[in-house]
Every structure is written in C-alpha cells, then in structure tokens.
Amino acid sequence: MNNLTELEVENLRHIIGSHGMIANKLDSYAQNCTDPQLKEMFQKDAQAARQAQQQLIGFFG
C-alpha cells in the first residue's frame, strides 16, 4: 500500500464500499425471489461480491 496515492486509497475505499452495497442488494433480491434458480444466482453473486471486497481490503493489510 505504500505506493498508493491518497486519491488511489480513497478510490479503493469507495470500490470496497460499493462491493458491500452490491452484496447486500443481491442478498435482498435473493430473499425476495421465488424462482430457485434466480435465487441461487443472486446468492452466488452476493458471495462473489463479498469475496472481491475481501480481496480489495487485503491491499490495506
């Protein structure tokens, strides 16, 4: 992280937050979905968004 500028860090924080928001929305869609295939797709996509979020958080570690 030493090589990141303040603007890059701020952009990274924004992207991390966006992934979290997307994951929450997808979870909500899955909860309200009655089609099993669509529900599974929403759940998998929410999980992928959270995994991407965790990978991005790793840049701060």
Question: Can you tell me about this structure?
Answer:
This protein is mainly alpha-helical and 61 residues long. The protein has a domain at 19-60. The chain has two helices and no strands. It has helices spanning 6-32, 36-57. The radius of gyration is 14 Å and the shape is elongated. The model has no long low-confidence stretch (mean pLDDT 93). This is Spore coat protein.
* Distinct helical segment count: 2
Order of helices and strands: HH
Portion of residues in helices? over 70%
Give the overall silhouette.
elongated
Gyration radius (Cα, Å) is 14 Å
Question: What low-confidence regions span 5 or more consecutive residues with pLDDT below 50?
Answer: none
Largest sheet: none
What do the pLDDT scores average to? 93
Number of strands: 0
Q: Give the DSSP E fraction (strand runs of 2 or more residues).
A: under 5%
Structural class: mainly alpha
Termini Cα gap: 8 Å
